[in-house]
Specification:
heterotrimer; A mainly alpha; B mainly alpha; C alpha/beta; A: mainly alpha; two-stranded antiparallel sheet; 14 helices; 2% strand; C: alpha/beta; Rossmann fold; 6-stranded mixed beta sheet; 17 helices; globular
Chain lengths: 322, 322, 489
C-alpha cells in the first residue's frame, strides 16, 4: 500500500466520520477547563466505564455489517448477568455458569436470526420487541429486585487489576477487540459478512451462503451481549433487569455514530469502538464539568439526533444531485 | 363459490392469527374465571386503560404513514410534567390545553427535524425519534429535578382537572366520552379528508405520491404532529387519573402502542390500516393483561407475554402477502 | 471437446403472453469474439440469463465446453468457466478490488495477503495498474469493468459474455477495452459481445448474430455484413396492424423548454405543440428519463425556462407541474407509479382527489364515479373497483395509471416506457388512448426503448445521446436507420 493511498484513507476516515471529529472537538473544549480530563487515570477510567458497552457493540457491529441490526442486546445483557449469578448462587462453578449464560445469549441470537434472516423486512422493531420480552424474562427471574451474587470470587472477574494498575475490564475489552477485529477483517466469515451487507444479491451469486452467515452474525451478537452482561454483573456483583434499559438503542446508535451504516457492508469493529467511545467521552466531560445526569441525557439525545440527522442529510443531498 | 368462501375464510384467519389467538384466550379466561365478566372488573379495566388508547391512536397514523415514533415516551413525560406544574399559574383548563399544545409542538418539531434532514427509511426515523425522546425526557427531568409532582385531590379547586381522569357521567368515565369523540373525529379525518388520504398514500408509496403531486413532507409533519397531540392528551389524562406527574411516566408506552397497532392488524409496512382496528387492538391488549392478572400471572410475566405477542405479530405481519 | 465452446440449440423461453425466445440456436467457436445485436426486447438479455442460470429454459439444449447443461445456478456457471459481465456491475462497492475479484473465495487464497497477491497477478496479466487495495466504489466505470473481467479470469473462464460493455465508457476507455478484448482472444478465451453500437461490433467481432423478436434473423462473419444491412435486419419488422394510424392534429406551440441543464443533461431545448406526440429516442441511460423528470419538477434543475402557451411558468415540484397541466406516467410502474396496498379505485383517483375535495372532505361518491368511468372507458379488467392493485395484470395496472391522468385531462401527458412489460393487446389499447388524447387537443411526450413504437406513434422524434439532443426527425420522412444512427451517437 503506498503512502498516497494511506494518507487519502486517513483523511477519508476523518472527514467521513463525525465521530472522530466529535472526539477532537470535545478534547479541544476540555483544554479550556481546569479538570482532571487529561490524566492517565481518567483515560483508564473512561476505558473501564466504556468497556461493557464497547463489548456489546463489537457483537452488534457484526450483525449491522451483515445488513441487520440488533436492538435486543439490552435485554440480553441483563439476562446474561442474571443467569450467571442465579447459576453461581445455586452452586455451579463460575466458569460453567458463564458458559451457560453465554450460550443463553447465543440462543437469543438464534431466535433473532430465525425471525429476521428469511425476510427482507427490516429487523428494527422486531428486535425491539425481543428486547422487551427479555426484560420481562429478567424481571420474572429476579422478581425485579437486584440479585446479589453469594460467591465473592465472581466479583473478582471484573474488579481486579492487571499489573497493579490496568483494570481487568479494559484487558478483556482489548482482547475481545482484537478477536473481533481479526474475525471481521481476516477470516472468511468476516469478509462474507461485509459482502452480504454490501450487496446481498452479488454475495448470493458469488456462492456465499447468505442465510447461515447472517444467522450466525445474530448468534454472535447475542452471545457477546450475554458475555458483557456477565462482566457487568461481576463488576456490580449483582444482576438486575434494569441494567440493559437503554443499552440496545445506545449501542446501536454508537455503532452508527462510528460509521457502520445500517445499510450494511461498511464500517468495522474499530469504527464502532470509536463511536461508543464518543458517547463515553461526552459523559465523562459532562461529569468533569459538574453537569448532572439529566444534562447528560439531554446531550446524549442531541448527539444522536445531530449525528444521525447529519448522516441522513448528506445521504439526501447525494440522492438529489442526480 | 363455496370453495372461494372457504379459501377467503382461511386467508383472513391466517391474516388475523394474533387476533384470533387473543380472543380465544379471553373466552377461555371468561369460562375459567367468571369474575372476568363481572361489571366491577370491567369498570376497573375501563378506568386503568388510559392513556394507552390516545397513544395508540396517534401511533396508528404514524405507522399508516410508513414510519414509527419512539418519542412518545419523552412527549408523554414532558407534557405531563408541564401540565401538572402549570396548573397553578394557568388554572385547570389552561393546564390541560398547555399539555396538549406542548405535545403538538413537540410532535411538529419531530416532523420538522425528520423532514429537514430527509430521514426516509425506518432506521433513521427510529433513531432520530429515540434521540428526540431522550431530549424531551431530559428536559422533564431538569424541570422536576426527578421529583414527583403532586396535584392534591382533596383540595376542592382541581375538580375539573381530575374529573377528566377519574370522573364519571352516570356509569361512563368522562375520559371515555372525550376519547370516543376524538376517536370519531380522527376516524372521519382518516376516512373522509384529503389529508387523511395523503397519509396512507405516503405510507403506500412515497415516490408515487410525490410524483402525483402530493406533498409528502407535509404529510410526514402532520402524522408526527398528530402523534404529539395524542401524546399530550394521553399525558393529561394520565396525570389527571393518578394526580402525580414524573419525568419517567412515559416509559413503555412506545412499545405498548406499537403492540396495539400491530395486534389490531395495521401493517408496519405502511399504507393501510384503520383507527378502529387499532382500538380493537388496544381493547384486546388490555383485556389480555386483565386476563393474565386474573389468572395470577405477575406483571413481569405479563411483560414477557406482551413482548412475545409483539414479536409474533410482527413476524406474521412480515410473512403476510400484501 | 470440439471446436465450439458453446452450442445453443433450439432454446425457447416463454413468459406469460410473450415468447421471449423462439428456437434460438447459436454456435460460439473457441477464441473468437462473437457479437449479438438486436433492439431492446429482442431477447438478448433473456438468452444471457438462461446461460447464466438466472432463468430456466423452456426447451432446447445448451452445451458448454462439451458438457450438456440442464440446470445451473450463477455460481455453477462461473465455476464451469462461463462469466457474464452485466451492464450493472456485480460488485460490492464497499469492498476492495482484490476482495471483489475473489468474493466468497477467501479461504482458497489463505487470507487477505494471498487474495491481494493473486489479484495483483491477474490484473498484471491484462496490463491493468489498478491498486488492489482501492475500494471498488471509488473506481471509474471502466476500472470496474476491468475488475469484472479480472474476476472472470480468476475463475479460469473459457467464455466471457459482455452485456453492453461500452454503455458507461468514454471513447478513451473504450480503446483500452478493445486492447483487452484482443488479449483475451489471443489467450483462447471466447467472448460474446452484446451491443447496440454498431461501430464496436464491426471493430471487435468476428461473427455476428442478429436477434429480433426472440428469433435469430441472421448469423455470418462480420465482414459479410454492411452497416445498413445490419440496421435493417435489427429494426425491420412488419407486423400488420401493430399500431393504429398516426394522429395528425399538430397545432400551435404549447410548451417550450429552454436551457435545461443538470449534472447529466446539457442544454436541452425543445418545443412541444398542441396535438403532437413527441418521441424521445436514445439508449438506456442517455438522459431521456432525466429530461422529463427535470421538466416535471421531480429532479432539481438549474437556470432553465419553461413557457406554457407562451407564458413563463415556474415548476419546482410535481405539484406545480400538475397545476400547469402536466401528468407523468413513470418508467418504473411498481416503485414510482402504483400504490400497491391500495385498491384499483384508490389508484385511479389519486390525481383527481384535490378537485373532489371541499372543506378538506373528499367526495366519496364522486370518487367512485370517476373510478367507474375510467374502468369502463379504458376497459380495465378487474373483478371489482375495490380489488387490490397487486392482483391486476401489468397491462391493466398501466391502464389504471393512464386513467389516473386522463381524469384530470392534462394538456401535456408524459409517458415513460408506457408499454413496457405488457402484452400486445393492451399495448394497442394504450396507443389508441394516446391518439385520443392528442385528438382532444392535448400533447404527449413519449419515451420508449422500442423503436418501432416511437416511429409509428410520434409526429416528431428527438434523439438523445449522452445528455444532449442530437437530432430531430419526422418519422414519416426519415428512416429508422437514420434515427438509430443518430441516437447511438
Amino acid at each position: 500500500m503506498n503512502i498516497k493511498i494511506a494518507s487519502q484513507r486517513v483523511w477519508g476516515t476523518i472527514s467521513k466520520q463525525g465521530a472522530v471529529l466529535a472526539i477532537l472537538v470535545l478534547m479541544i473544549m476540555m483544554l479550556f477547563f481546569k479538570t482532571n480530563f487529561y490524566t492517565a487515570y481518567n483515560w483508564l477510567d473512561m476505558l473501564r466505564s466504556a468497556a461493557i458497552l464497547e463489548i456489546v457493540a463489537f457483537g452488534v457491529t457484526v450483525a449491522v455489517i451483515c445488513g441487520g441490526c440488533d436492538l435486543s442486546v439490552g435485554g440480553t445483557l441483563s439476562f446474561g448477568g442474571i443467569a450467571a449469578i442465579l447459576l453461581i448462587n445455586i452452586g455451579f462453578p463460575i466458569w460453567l455458569a458463564i458458559i451457560i449464560a453465554v450460550l443463553g445469549g447465543a440462543f437469543v441470537g438464534f431466535i433473532n436470526g430465525f425471525l429476521v434472516v428469511h425476510q427482507k423486512t427490516e429487523p428494527f422493531i422486531i428486535t425491539l420487541g425481543m428486547g422487551m420480552l427479555l426484560k420481562g424474562v429478567c424481571q420474572v427471574l429476579t422478581d425485579a429486585h437486584p440479585l446479589p451474587s453469594k460467591v465473592p470470587a465472581f466479583m473478582e472477574i471484573s474488579n481486579s487489576k492487571f499489573f497493579a494498575s490496568i483494570p481487568s475490564l479494559v484487558v478483556y475489552m482489548v482482547i475481545l477487540f482484537a478477536a473481533f477485529h481479526y474475525l471481521m477483517r481476516y477470516t472468511s466469515f468476516g469478509r462474507n459478512c461485509y459482502a452480504i451487507g454490501g450487496n446481498y444479491e452479488v454475495a448470493e451469486y458469488s456462492g456465499i451462503k447468505v442465510i447461515p452467515t447472517k444467522w450466525a452474525a445474530f448468534i454472535i451478537s447475542g452471545a457477546t451481549a450475554a458475555l458483557a452482561g456477565v462482566l457487568l454483573a461481576s463488576r456490580m456483583n449483582t444482576g438486575s433487569s434494569v441494567y440493559g434499559d437503554n443499552t440496545g438503542m445506545l449501542v446501536n446508535c454508537g455503532v452508527v455514530i462510528g460509521g457502520t451504516s445500517f445499510a450494511g457492508g461498511v464500517g468495522g469493529i474499530r469504527e464502532s469502538f470509536i463511536g461508543l467511545f464518543v458517547i463515553q467521552i461526552l459523559i465523562n466531560c459532562m461529569s468533569m464539568l459538574g453537569l448532572d445526569s439529566y444534562y447528560q441525557k439531554l446531550f446524549e439525545g442531541i448527539l444522536i439526533v445531530t449525528i444521525i440527522g447529519l448522516d441522513c442529510f448528506f445521504r439526501m443531498r447525494k440522492r438529489e444531485s442526480v | 363459490m363455496k370453495r372461494d368462501i372457504s379459501a377467503r375464510f382461511t386467508r383472513s384467519l391466517r391474516n388475523n392469527l394474533v387476533l384470533v389467538g387473543i380472543i380465544a384466550l379471553i373466552v377461555v379466561t371468561a369460562i375459567i374465571e367468571p369474575k372476568f365478566i363481572s361489571s366491577a372488573n370491567l369498570t376497573n379495566v375501563m378506568r386503568q386503560l388510559w392513556p394507552l388508547p390516545f397513544i395508540a391512536l396517534g401511533m396508528t397514523f404514524v405507522i399508516i404513514g410508513g414510519f414509527i415514533d419512539l418519542s412518545v415516551v419523552g412527549m408523554i413525560s414532558l407534557s405531563g410534567v408541564v401540565a401538572a406544574s402549570l396548573i397553578n399559574p394557568l388554572g385547570q383548563v389552561g393546564a390541560i390545553l398547555s399539555g396538549i399544545l406542548l405535545g403538538g409542538m413537540m410532535g411538529y418539531l419531530n416532523g420538522f427535524v425528520l423532514t429537514t434532514v430527509g430521514a426516509m427509511i425506518q432506521a433513521e426515523v427510529l433513531f432520530i425519534t429515540f434521540g428526540m425522546s431522550s431530549i424531551y425526557t431530559a428536559i422533564a427531568l431538569l424541570l422536576t429535578n426527578a421529583e414527583t409532582l403532586r396535584i392534591a385531590r382533596s383540595t376542592k379547586p382541581y375538580n375539573i382537572f381530575t374529573a377528566l381522569g377519574s370522573g364519571t357521567v352516570g356509569m361512563i368515565p368522562v375520559v371515555l366520552i372525550v376519547f370516543l369523540v376524538i376517536l370519531v373525529i380522527m376516524h372521519l379525518f382518516y376516512k373522509k379528508t384529503l389529508a387523511g388520504r395523503s397519509i396512507s398514500l405516503m405510507g403506500g408509496n412515497k415516490e408515487a405520491a410525490f410524483l402525483t403531486g402530493y406533498n409528502v413532507k407535509r404529510s410526514m409533519r402532520l402524522v408526527y404532529t398528530i402523534s404529539g397531540i395524542m401524546s399530550g392528551m394521553g399525558a393529561v389524562s394520565l396525570v389527571s387519573r393518578v394526580t402525580t406527574a414524573t419525568a419517567t411516566s412515559g416509559i413503555g408506552y412506545e412499545t405498548n402502542a406499537i403492540l396495539c397497532v400491530v395486534v389490531g392488524g395495521t401493517s408496519l409496512k405502511g399504507g393501510k390500516g384503520s383507527v378502529i382496528r387499532t382500538m380493537l387492538g388496544v381493547l384486546l391488549v388490555v383485556l389480555l393483561g386483565n386476563c393474565m392478572n386474573l389468572l395470577g400471572l405477575s406483571t413481569f410475566m405479563q411483560t414477557v407475554m406482551r413482548g412475545a405477542v409483539l414479536v409474533i405479530a410482527i413476524w406474521l405481519d412480515n410473512r403476510r402477502e400484501l | 471437446m470440439g471446436e465450439n465452446i458453446l452450442v445453443v440449440k433450439d432454446v425457447c423461453k416463454y413468459f406469460p403472453g410473450v415468447t421471449a425466445l423462439d428456437n434460438v440456436s447459436i454456435e460460439v467457436p473457441r477464441g473468437i469474439v462473437y457479437g449479438i445485436v438486436g433492439e431492446n426486447g429482442a431477447g438478448k438479455s433473456t438468452l444471457m440469463k438462461i446461460l447464466s442460470g438466472v432463468y430456466e429454459k423452456d426447451g432446447g439444449t445448451v452445451v458448454f465446453n462439451g458438457e450438456t447443461i440442464e440446470h445451473t445456478t450463477p455460481i455453477q456457471a462461473l465455476q464451469r468457466g462461463l462469466s457474464i459481465i452485466y451492464q450493472e456491475f456485480n460488485l460490492v462497492n464497499s469492498m476492495t478490488v482484490g476482495e471483489n475479484i475473489f468474493l466468497g473465495r477467501f479461504k482458497e487464497n489463505r487470507g487477505m495477503r494471498g487474495t491481494h497477491k493473486k489479484a495483483r497477478e491477474l490484473l498484471d496479466s491484462i496490463g491493468s495498474t489498478i491498486n488492489t487495495y482501492t475500494m471498488v466504489g471509488d473506481l471509474s466505470a471502466s476500472e470496474m469493468q476491468m475488475v469484472e473481467i479480472t474476476k472472470a479470469l480468476s475463475f479460469d473462464s473459457k467464455l466471457i459474455i459482455m452485456d453492453e460493455p461500452s454503455s458507461s465508457l468514454t471513447s478513451e476507455e473504450l480503446k483500452r477495452l478493445g486492447i483487452i478484448i484482443n488479449q483475451l482472444r489471443d489467450k483462447g478465451i471466447s467472448i460474446i459481445y452484446i451491443s447496440h453500437k454498431l461501430d464496436e461490433i464491426f471493430e471487435y467481432c468476428d461473427i455476428v448474430t442478429i436477434l429480433r423478436d426472440g428469433r435469430v434473423i441472421d448469423t455470418k462473419p462480420v465482414g459479410e455484413y454492411t452497416r445498413n444491412e445490419m440496421i435493417a435486419k435489427m429494426v425491420g419488422r412488419t407486423i400488420e396492424n401493430e399500431f393504429p394510424p398516426r394522429a395528425h392534429f399538430v397545432a400551435e406551440p404549447l410548451l417550450e423548454v429552454r436551457n435545461l441543464n443538470t449534472k447529466k443533461l446539457k442544454d436541452i431545448n425543445f418545443t412541444l405543440h398542441r396535438g403532437e406526440i413527441l418521441g424521445l429516442v436514445g439508449l438506456v441511460g442517455a438522459g431521456r428519463t432525466e429530461i422529463i423528470r427535470a421538466l416535471y419538477g421531480a429532479d432539481k434543475a438549474r437556470g432553465h425556462k419553461i413557457f406554457l402557451r407562451g407564458k413563463p411558468v415556474n415548476i419546482r415540484n410535481p405539484k406545480q407541474a400538475m397545476r400547469a397541466g402536466m401528468g407523468l406516467v413513470p418508467e418504473d410502474r411498481k416503485h414510482e407509479g402504483l400504490i400497491l396496498p391500495f385498491s384499483v379505485e384508490g389508484n385511479i383517483t389519486m390525481a383527481s382527489l384535490e378537485a373532489l375535495t371541499k372543506y378538506g372532505i373528499v367526495n366519496r361518491a364522486a370518487e367512485r364515479d370517476i373510478a367507474k368511468r375510467q374502468i369502463d372507458s379504458l376497459s380495465i379488467k378487474t373483478p371489482t373497483q375495490t380489488t387490490k392493485m397487486i392482483s391486476l395484470s401489468g397491462g391493466n395496472q398501466q391502464k389504471c395509471i393512464v386513467g389516473r391522468w386522463l381524469e384530470i385531462e392534462p394538456d401535456i401527458l408524459i409517458l415513460d416506457e408506457p408499454t413496457r412489460g405488457i402484452d400486445v393487446g393492451a399495448k394497442y389499447e394504450i396507443y389508441l388512448l394516446m391518439n385520443k388524447i392528442v385528438e382532444s387537443g392535448g400533447a404527449i411526450i413519449m419515451i420508449s426503448s422500442e423503436l418501432p413504437e416511437v416511429l409509428n406513434m410520434s409526429n416528431r422524434v428527438l434523439t438523445i445521446c449522452e445528455g444532449r439532443i442530437t437530432g430531430e426527425f419526422k418519422p414519416e420522412e426519415s428512416s429508422a436507420e437514420e434515427i438509430m444512427e443518430r441516437a447511438i451517437g
